[in-house]
Amino acid sequence: MPPFTRSSSTLQSSVEKEESGVNNDWSSMTVVQLKAQLKERGLPVSGVKPVLIERLEGKDEAVAVASATSATTTTSKYFAKQPSSPVTVTAKTKGKVSAKTPTKRGSPSKSKSPGKSPGRSPKRVTIEPGSLKPPTNWEKIYSLVEELRADRSAPVDTDGGEALPEKHLGEVVYRFQVLTALMLSSQTKDAVVGETMRILQQHGLTVENIHQTDHETLNGLIKKVGFHNNKTKFMKQSAEIILTQYNGDIPPTADEMMKLPGVGPKMAYIVESIAFDTASGIGVDTHMHRMFNDLKWVTSKTPEETREQLEGWLPRDKWGSINYIWVGFGQEVQQQKEKMLRKCLASSSPREALGLVKKLRMDVKKEAKRFGLEDDIKRVM
Predict the structure, then answer these.
(1) From 35, 59, 231, 266, active-site residue
(2) In this predicted structure, what is the pLDDT of residue 37?
(3) N or C: which end of the chain has fewer CB within 10 A?
């Protein structure tokens, strides 16, 4: 007989002993003895006597089956590892004994769903421009908003990225100031952005001067905007990049602008539209995101998803102006309610205009009472 190999007859004999119950009179043993047997077999030792007995019987049955299956092929552990049947462990729950198959420590007991990797969300499908069906009557609503915005009297019209830059200093300076205004605008009201831009312009708002201005001085100049510490750092880093990599002018495309510190898609697309009169994408902020979801023009969770869905159906000739028009409209709906109500009443479609601002969360009845416009609105509605 080769070394390290057990004969078929020896294995069969041991199996028969196990199956006949030799030395397995568990009921005559004490709990201490039963626990000792369980410990030898590497099984849990907790539980009352009947549970311990059933656990031992289950182990021996599994061993017998495994031994009978591999009787003619089992060799020494030094040469081959033989497959073994899973060990069945009995556990008592609420008065009932149930069978459990133990798993490796640390491994999940739940089965994995086929085709999915744990911890990974499904990859979002890219929406191609022009691939989505436009919302019903969107053109009528869009035209109405353009009419309501014709007077250009919203905060963005005086303190936004298009109005603030100094055009008389040349195109290069103008473009840098457009970029700066958008970088300052994040998490900051337009009025504060306007005030800060004018302070910077008095200091000298050129890429060369911002590059030369020390960090503490620049931080003091923009201290009123939100997150001014981060914005100071981003402005200094961007000035360095613009001077060394773009010959003193801002990057010419939105994709290139997004490589600048602190510049995301919204800023880049708006700067591209204002500074270069080009629109490779739509700049969407949180206010536009909310409004377009309220109108059911998109169904999205983030401004970036809103952008993708809008680009999926909105004609390209409106990509460059949609931010300017709708941001201003939203500002008037939220901040200048009386003026907006009067504009709605004076519009070509007052009923539709009032219905629109109502969809955008203005309490028309409450505001009409507040400003003495109840009778006018009742006549329209």
Answers:
(1) 266
(2) 79
(3) N
